[in-house]
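hey so u asked for the seq, here:
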Amino acid sequence: MKRSLCGLALLLAAALQPVLAGSSITIYSDGFGLISEERELQLKKGRQDWIFDGVSRQIEPASVLFHCDGVRLLEQNFEYDLVDEETLLRRYLGMEIDVQLKEGEWLRGTLLSGGLGLILQTEQGVTSLRPDALVAVRYPKLPDGLRLKPALRWELEAQAAGARKATISYLSGGLNWNAEYVCLLAEDDNSMEMASWVNLSNQTGLTWEDAGLQLVAGSVHRVQAPQNYLAKAPRMAMAMEADAAGGFQEESFFEYHLYTLERPATIKDRQDKQVALFDPKRVTLAKRYLADGTRGQDVQVELEFVNSKEKGPGLPLPEGTVRLYKLDSRGRKQMVGEDRIRHTPVDEKVKLNAGKAFDLVAERKVLDEKHSGRSVEREVELTLKNRKAKESVTLTVREPMWGDWTILQSDFKGEKTDANTWELLVPLKAGETRTVRYRVRHNS
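ran it, structure tokens below
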């Protein structure tokens, strides 16, 4: 169903979308942002109303911080009753509108309901119109109080007339960022080249040109999640824009890490933008095969590195997705795994689960079980298979334990790594199958 005046208003709203220059934006990894800008206010002396437009659709009004020498902010109203189809119908309930039918005829009546269809009181009686019977709706005028874009209405008190510079800051939803890591493994899997992107998302209804951009990594405690005052605003498909030039400067800030882009950035509304976080760095890896008794017979492939200056990258790593690639025998890049890391400080370990090893199998079978009072004895058999044609491997076997447990007998030496885990390192030659048996007592 086409609604002529509403469609025109939405086009006007798109055309009047604010484009802000000279602003600064700090985006937090928890999904909100701090927007700061300067405005010049032309004021008269005494009390007066002022419209501050060009604000985010998802502003948190109570977070506004206003500073202007010689000016007091006495009262603030956030006006977000925007022009759209639903609002126009709601405002015109009980009033006359014109409706064009499919046949081209125009019908005038008093709007009684504007749900899925329209119900009109006409001279002929009450008429119910289905959506597929309508072509357009014509309204006499735009109702008072509707806006094309959200705004703050302020009551200000100025000590003197004239131009004043004001700084305005506020929190807003609709801004987010996350780190994305792209890694190319060496042929021997003992190292990789690691690069990182920052992915920025903007759903505020604003576009910033040449803005100062900063990112905060870490969990900032908030009383409640940012509130979306314009949840009914339509979400459009996001564009993708890659910016290959990096330039982030990292520093510790309070209990978080702050990344400042050393050049202005343009951030468009309804856009995903990628900016390089750091240049590619060589990282030393340890690769291991893990057979966890809680995961059946699958063997996981783990890559581990220490985030140090010596072994790379030696930088605070924000939470994000890590994608692993490797060159095949023809020199073509293939994806070999993907995992997610948490915020990782320097000198901490990072473990990446690359997937399941195709040619390795770990079977676990309980051969015997005896109960005596609060004690249980089990005999367990592990069958470990290396189906690789040429490569020898060392399999890390992790056996889950419970209660007060003791290994009574084992034909292979293991290690108690914590209160609930017994771990064995079992070498397997190419094509080899090896059986390991052990007996354990659990006391509850």
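The first strand starts at residue 19 and ends at 21. The chain is about 5% helix and 60% strand.
lmk if thats what u needed
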